[in-house]
C-alpha cells in the first residue's frame, strides 16, 4: 500500500502497533489496523464524509464502524494514555504547563504600538519549525489527541448507534 500524506509513518506505526488488539474477541480478526487508522486520521484531518474516504483505506463502512466502536468502548482514550506513558518513559513529553496570557492584566503603559516591522510571510510550501523537531512519539501523541478530541466532541453531541463488528 502506498503511503499518503498524513498517514502513519513506519516508525509511528511500530510504536503504536504493540498497543492494538489482534481481535476484538467477538468477530474474529480485525481488518488491517494500519489501513483503517490511516483512514480515520485522514477523516479527522480533512473532515471528509465517511462515504467519501479514498478507496486506499478500504471500505468506508469498515473505517467508520471501527472508529465508532473504538470511540464507544474507550479504545482511543486507552491508546492515547498508553502512547503518552511510553513517550514519557522515553523522555519525549514535555509536561510544562502554559498559561493563557489573556488573563493577565497589563499596565496601562504597556499598550504601546509595535516598534519593529512585522515578520515576512512564509511561503506556502514552508513547514513550521515546531514540526521539524517533533519526534515520532510526539507526532503519534499529537495524532491520537486529535482523534480523541473528535471522539469527545462526537460524544458531547450524542452521536451514536448500536455497535457492530467490522
From TrEMBL:
| NCBIfam families for the chain | transpos_IS5_3
Q: What is this protein called?
A: Insertion element IS402-like domain-containing protein
Taxonomy, top ranks, is: Bacteria, Bacillati, Actinomycetota, Actinomycetes, Kitasatosporales
Any Pfam family matching the protein: DUF4096
InterPro entries for the chain: IS402-like_dom, Transposase_6_like
The Insertion element IS402-like domain sits at 8-79
Residue ranges, annotated region (Disordered): 108-133
Q: Which domain of life is it from?
A: Bacteria
Amino acid at each position: 500500500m502506498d503511503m499518503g500524506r498524513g498517514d502513519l509513518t513506519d516508525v509511528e506505526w511500530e510504536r503504536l502497533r504493540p498497543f492494538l488488539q489482534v481481535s476484538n474477541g467477538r468477530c474474529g480478526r480485525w481488518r488491517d489496523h494500519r489501513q483503517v487508522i490511516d483512514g480515520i486520521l485522514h477523516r479527522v484531518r480533512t473532515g471528509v464524509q465517511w462515504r467519501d474516504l479514498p478507496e486506499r483505506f478500504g471500505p468506508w463502512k469498515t473505517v467508520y464502524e471501527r472508529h465508532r466502536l473504538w470511540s464507544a468502548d474507550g479504545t482511543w482514550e486507552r491508546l492515547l494514555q498508553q502512547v503518552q506513558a511510553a513517550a514519557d518513559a522515553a523522555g519525549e513529553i514535555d509536561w510544562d504547563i502554559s498559561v493563557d496570557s489573556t488573563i493577565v492584566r497589563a499596565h496601562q503603559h504597556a499598550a504601546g504600538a509595535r516598534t519593529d516591522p512585522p515578520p515576512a510571510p512564509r511561503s506556502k510550501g514552508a513547514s513550521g519549525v515546531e514540526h521539524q523537531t517533533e519526534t515520532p512519539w510526539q507526532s503519534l501523541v499529537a495524532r491520537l489527541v486529535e482523534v480523541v478530541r473528535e471522539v469527545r466532541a462526537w460524544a458531547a453531541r450524542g452521536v451514536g448507534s448500536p455497535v457492530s463488528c467490522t
